[in-house]
Amino acid sequence: MISTKELRERLLKERADLLAGVRRNIEGLSAADRVSEDEQAQRFHDDFVRLRLSTMDIERLRMVNEALDRIQTGDYGICLNCDQPIPAKRLQALPWARYCVTCQEQFAKEASSDSEDLLEYLRYPLAQ
Question: What angle do CA 105, 11, 64 make, to 5 degrees?
């Protein structure tokens, strides 16, 4: 079984890797040079992808920082929803996990249902 100290070290490494990745993506954004329309379209696309990847990395960075905070306060490994211990296997696979598998699956199911409701509303807004 992996110790909290080892998980903390993994979280610290993950944080460093995420920060480096965000930095690379931001530094890789195109300068506002004059270029042909074809090249400009490709640059916009590349910049969009870099920004999207950075956004995803920043979200994971937030979760990693929250996990490090929970280690410091002694709340690490406890589901934020049901207050039950998060299984060690889950923490080993996903050290920044905030929820046990049961609660995470419930949230995913609710989010999926909410998305379906939103899509239905967007398809037929006046029928609601």
Answer: 55
102-121 tens-digit pLDDT: 999 998 888 777 666 656 65
Q: Who's near 14: CB < 8 A, 6+ residues apart?
A: 60, 64, 95, 96
pLDDT surpassing 60 at residue 126 = no
d(CA 104, CA 116): 18
Rounded to whole angstroms, how far apart are CA atoms 99 and 104? 6
Total count of domains within the chain: 1
88 lies in which domain range?
A: 4-127
How far apart CA 19 and CA 11 sit, in angstroms, is 12
CA–CA separation, 3 and 51 (whole Å):
35
* 98: its two tokens: 């905030």
- Of 44, 57, 69, residue with least CA distance to 18: 57
The CATH code of the domain that includes 26 is 1.20.120.910
Ranking 3-12, 17-26, 80-89 by mean pLDDT, the lowest is 17-26
